[in-house]
Amino acid sequence: MRFSLPLAATLALSAVQASPLVKRDGPVTTPKGIDDGVILNYALTLEYLERKFYQDALANFTREDFVKAGFEDPFYENLKEIYVDEQTHVKFLSDALTAAKITPTNELKYTFPVTTVLQFVTLSSMLEGVGVSAYLGAAAKIVNKDYLTAAGAILTVEARHTAYIRAALNESPYPNPFDTPLGFNEVYSLAATYITGGTSPVKLPFMAFPSLTLQCSQYYYEAERSSVTFTGAFKAAQKFGVAKDTPIYAVFFSGLKKLPVKVRITQGDSDYKIDAIPAGVQGQAYVVLSKSDTDFSDEKIIAGPQILEVYQKGKIPSTPKAKCH
What we know:
Blueprint: H1 6-13, H2 36-60, H3 63-68, H4 75-99, E1 109-110, H5 117-139, H6 145-168, H7 184-192, E2 195-197, E3 221-222, E4 228-230, H8 233-237, E5 249-254, E6 257-262, E7 264-266, E8 271-274, E9 283-290, E10 301-311
Parallel strand pairs: 3-10
Antiparallel strand pairs: 1-2, 4-8, 5-6, 5-9, 7-8, 9-10
Helix pairs in contact: 1-5, 2-4, 2-5, 4-6, 5-6
C-alpha cells in the first residue's frame, strides 16, 4: 500500500493557529544572544512536543488500529520504542539544563490534527523530519563540545526515526543525499502550529513568521514540472508593506540548497504562484516567501515555512494521490 505524504501538509498546517509563542506583528529578526542554554531549551521544547505527539497516539490508537490501516507488526511496537526515545531525550535535556543551573522549560499544551492512523503516521514523518532539520541547523551554534556530541547523538536517532516512518509509508527513507538544516525562527514557526496554550518559565528569543498556506493540489509535487499556489499570500503580505511591484521569491530549502523562484500575483490580487518547483528540490522540503533571491536571512522572510514532499522529475508515484478535502 502506498500512502500520500503530501496529504500531511494539509493536515498539519490547517491546525489551530493559536499559540503562546510570539507571533509577528513587525519584522522578524535573526535571534540574538543564543548560547548553549538557549539551544538546549529550544531542543527541549521540540522534544516535549514530539513526546506528547506519540503519547497521545499510543493512547488513542491500538495495535489493531494500525494493522487495519496497513501498518503491520512490528510497527506498533516500534512506535512504542520511538516514544521511549523521545521521553529519554526530554529527561536528558532537562537534566543537563538543571545540572548547568539553567531553568528548563516545561511541557505546554498541544493540538495535533490527527483523527486516523494514517494522519498520525504522515504527520509523524513530517515532525521527525523537522526534528532532524532543527538539530542540524542548531549544531553550528553549540559551543560546548559535550553538548554538541549529545545533540549529534540525538540527531542521528531522529534521522533513523524519519527513515523508518518514511519507509512504512512506502516513501524513500533517504530521498536526498543531504538533510536540510533550518534556522531557529523557521523551526519555531512550524512548532507554533501545534502549541495552543500553556506557560513556560523560560522565554526563548524566537519569533514565528506569518503562516503560509499552499493550495491543495490533486497531483504529487514534481521538481521542474509542478506549480505551487500560495493561497492569500499577496493579500497577507500587503499588511507588511509589500506592493504589487515588490519582487518576492519562493525559496525552497532542500538539503544544503536554497533555491529561489520569483512568484507572480494571481486570483484577483490575492495569491502568489510559481509555475514550476526548481530542479534540485527533493524529499521533505521547506518553502518560505522572501524579499530577496540572494539573502535568505530572517529579516527578508515574509511568510513560512511550509512543508511539501517533492519528487524528482519523472519519479512521481504511479498510484493516485489522495484527494483534496
